[in-house]
Design brief:
Blueprint: E1 5-8, E2 30-34, H1 37-41, H2 47-66, E3 70-74, H3 84-95, E4 99-103, H4 108-120, E5 125-128, H5 137-144, H6 152-163, E6 167-168, E7 171-172, H7 205-217, H8 234-247, H9 249-252, H10 272-277, H11 282-294, H12 300-324, H13 352-364, H14 369-383, H15 387-397, H16 403-414, H17 431-437, H18 458-469, H19 471-474, H20 481-485, H21 492-515, H22 523-526
Bound molecules: flavin-adenine dinucleotide and iron/sulfur cluster.
Length: 529
């Protein structure tokens, strides 16, 4: 086979409008794709996450072939190469293309391995921009240069103006940039009522084949496969978007921070995985949301709240990731050194909020933002878990988890491991926050307003313990000082009881792990795969 260009498509680059196709000639050029074990095992990946990648990749290859393009595709069972770079090196030797074309990888790890291969290879490698994003990495760097602080809010205003989204005559529509004040409601005691069930996609024959292979190949990995109904093609991603815009966007803003026992989706979009695989573009998602407001189908606070996530947070964390890697990986500003409690991998705990968030994570590979930030993330922060272990867990268990978006959210936003680069202060709160935003506490054996005693909420105990542990650092902090100075209200005796109770909790959950001197115990299984 005479190949002019071998064009690399990574598992999260399933973009029908990729820059690879700008000058692609089907008679001379070939797409190259490979399923490799390392991508499923470098963290202890949820089985639905593995299945989603493989199903979407196989559908993509099938669609490309149907459009007349040649695809060189390596399935998992058909080769023994352990990594992407190894699989590609073998094929470069065999297929002998004149040139390699690749698009900026999202993950630093993958980019490094391909850069190393390119440096060894004698033929030309041409690197293309990833046009899926509205802000290129060089653009972000320009925006960041010379700024004292890289806050999301500043970035968001800049990109809204530049992209002309929700803008009129150079001003934000509705006269405000931010409708957060309207967007923080919780449900009353009656709960959310009848919720619109999100559109799901029954697995077709190709996806069923993947689900069977994953079940057989990764029996020890966490997560269920039976509920799998994620979009795996651009057509399905578009249908999922339209379903969200019509049936959930109008209430998205109001309840975006709310949680309710047994209700994993509420009014959330369920679009992160489809966007991260590039089955649908953020520009399309943003345009659909803006049009819903213009047509009077959804109120401005809901639409602004949603667009802020996609145009603001999503583009911002990507920029930060590429600015900060690889040092970001080792960030640990609060010197957290506890192992991740084993129950993160099983959901077996008597804390109702964590049981629900972890249970749905293991079932669906999904939890919404506030569950990630203010339940699982908050608990790890308060307990003082090593950020790298928290990161490995988040990267493993969510179907939408890809390092460029997961890592800044985990290490920066949730764990404050970057020492305030992304957020001005740690997102720390007691059980009372969870009580305000959910009905979890009503069904829990613990009481959110108690810090000491038999029924004290572990979040609340650990919250005060966290404030005491980090008092020196934050007492005079301009944004956090007020929260920290609340420890002045505690008597010495009370402080002592809190510290003792926190120590007992740590012995209960992580004592055995600390005694063993090791990291979180579960990856031992992981090594067995
Ligand atoms: P919705 O709540 O409906 O939000 C709409 C869209 O906005 C999402 O699809 C997503 O693309 C975007 N978005 C919202 N918040 C963020 C954010 N903070 N950063 C980037 N994009 C955002 N998101 C991922 O896509 N992959 C991850 O691996 C990931 N890990 C996270 C880890 C932690 C500790 C935290 C706190 C957040 C993480 N997020 C991650 C962000 C957010 O939680 C998910 O994007 C969201 O829950 C996905 O569900 P959804 O599609 O229903 O989103
Ligand atoms: Fe969670 Fe504490 Fe509420 Fe129980 S009481 S659900 S542990 S916040």
């Amino acid at each position: 086979m005479n190949i002019r260009r071998l064009c690399i498509v990574l598992g999260d680059q399933l973009d029908p409008a990729s820059s690879l196709f700008d000058d692609f000639e089907p008679q001379h050029d070939v797409l190259w794709m490979a399923e490799v074990r390392e991508e499923a095992t470098h963290v202890w990946s949820h089985r639905a996450r593995i299945a989603l990648f493989l199903a979407a990749m196989r559908h993509y290859a099938e669609a490309q072939r149907a459009s007349g393009r040649r695809v060189h595709y390596r399935r998992l069972g058909e080769h023994t190469a352990a990594s992407l770079a190894e699989a590609l090196a073998e094929d470069l030797a065999r297929l002998e293309p004149a040139e390699v074309v690749w698009v900026e990888p999202g993950d630093w790890r993958v980019a490094e391995s391909l850069r190393t291969l390119a440096a060894r290879d004698t033929r030309p490698w041409s690197l293309r921009q990833d046009r899926h994003f509205l802000v290129g990495t060089a653009d972000f760097q320009r925006w960041a240069t010379g700024r004292k602080e890289l806050r999301m809010e500043h970035f968001y205003r800049w990109i809204r103006q530049r992209a002309g989204v929700l803008m009129q005559d150079g001003k934000p529509v509705g006269g405000r940039w931010n409708f957060d004040a309207e967007n923080r409601e919780s449900f009353d005691a009656r709960g959310p009522g009848l919720l619109p069930a999100p559109l799901g996609f029954a697995p077709d024959a190709l996806t069923r084949e993947v689900l069977e292979e994953v079940a057989a190949a990764y029996p020890a990995h966490p997560g269920e496969l039976a509920p799998f109904d994620w979009p795996v093609t651009p057509v399905q991603a578009e249908a999922a978007l339209e379903d969200f815009i019509r049936r959930r966007l109008p209430e998205f803003g109001r309840y975006q921070d709310a949680m309710w026992q047994g209700e994993p989706w509420l009014y959330h979009a369920r679009l992160a995985a489809a966007m991260n695989l590039k089955l649908i573009s953020p520009a399309r998602v943003i345009a659909a949301a803006e049009a819903a407001w213009q047509d009077g189908q959804a109120p401005l606070p809901a639409v602004e709240g949603f667009i802020r996530q996609v145009l603001g947070w999503r583009e911002y964390v990507r920029g930060i990731y590429h600015l900060r890697m690889p040092a970001f990986l080792d960030a640990n500003a609060l010197d957290a050194d506890a192992p991740l409690p084993a129950f993160y991998w099983t959901g077996e705990t008597d804390m109702a909020c964590l049981r629900d968030a972890l249970g749905q994570t293991l079932k669906y590979g999904y939890a919404h933002h506030i569950q990630r930030l203010m339940v699982t993330g908050l608990f790890a922060l308060l307990l003082g878990v090593r950020p790298r272990e928290v990161h490995a867990w988040y990267l493993a268990v969510y179907v939408d988890a890809i390092e460029w978006v997961e890592l800044p959210n985990t290490l920066g936003m949730s764990q404050y491991a970057d020492g305030g680069y992304m957020t001005s202060k740690p997102y720390c709160a007691s059980g009372k926050y969870i009580d305000r935003m959910s009905n979890y506490c009503a069904g829990c054996r613990y009481r959110p307003d108690e810090a000491v005693g038999e029924t004290a909420c572990p979040f609340t105990t650990l919250y005060w313990d966290f404030l005491l542990r980090h008092e020196q650092r934050f007492r005079n902090h301009p944004r956090a000082g007020l929260q920290w100075r609340s420890v002045d209200r505690l008597s010495d005796e009370r402080k002592g009881s809190i510290v003792l109770q926190a120590a007992a909790l740590k012995v209960r959950w992580i004592g055995a792990q600390i005694a063993a001197g090791g990291p979180s115990p579960v990856p031992a299984d992981h090594g067995a795969d």
